[in-house]
Amino acid sequence: MKKYITLVLLGMIMLSSCHKKDNSIDGPNLNDVYGEFGVINTLGQNLDSVDFAVGQTAYFTAQMSKIIDWKITITGQTSGAVKEITGTGSSLTQATTTWLGETTYFPVFGAEICDVQLTFEGEDDTLTSTIKIIQSKLNPGFLISDFESGFNNQWTSYIQSGADMDFQIKTDASSPQGNSYYNMAGTVDWDYLIGYLYFGASAYGSPQMPITGNGDNTYFNIMIYGEPGSVNTILLFQFQEDDDLSGGFANSSEDTYSLEIPVNWEGWKLYSVKYSDIPCLVNGQPSTPNGNGQHNPDRLNQVNMLHLANPVTGFAKTKVDYIIFTQNEPLKP
Description:
Radius of gyration: 28 Å
Distance between the termini: 75 Å
CATH superfamily of the largest domain: Galactose-binding domain-like
CATH architecture of the largest domain: Sandwich
Number of helices: 3
Order of helices and strands: HHEEEEHEEEEEEEEEEEEEEE
Strand content: 35-45%
Number of strands: 19
């Protein structure tokens, strides 16, 4: 009998411990999860016009009757740029919806009016608004080129005498940033090299490129276009360092790091890599650097961009834009 009473008392203690003293239940209210959906407070925002270039940010608010998956889609009326913000909850707040001016799908945003659309998973309700960008966001870092100012006469270029060669800066609506990009195309049936463009530090007024930081916190970023129906292009970037700070580069005694990118996708894509992760390659194979063996982006004397393709595969084409070194994190355009 005593054993039975003890078990009953233990059961009562355990049952009482499952409830808070204020009689509330842990976890979300069932109505927050399974209740009928409705909008309590419609879509709002902190600013009607935002200047991202001076550090302003925008955020959006709303209140729903239940927890739900939601998505904000911001679309530039002029550029067609798209930014998506997603989340789950019964409210939208500054903490979950802050927009710094960056882009999810190219092109990047310009100074323009944007349509804002808030949608909900499994529901027909759509809330809309607009926001005006006074100035688009600035990207801190060292810009090699966005090709908006034309061809720098201190760059070095070379084009093979193949067929359908088209190496030039073009200006049209397909640019992912600004209005211009660099086009590279052609067929060479006797050599991998189709053409190249070399960016020397002297074009920027210094024997070494003005990059701060070390290889572990410096990122190389570039926007690259994959031509639909063609996967022939290989982009090879060579990073030549002036290890002895003599103002030049000697291949026999200084470091060259090489980045080989097979362009095997369609459309514009941002490619970013940590500088210290770029290997030393000789004929495409890992090798030992000839200099101090350290990744020193602050000693870069020249960046070479070579457009390559297997001579057997025929025509190759790509476009590039917005070549930039950033610090501490990859580019967020």
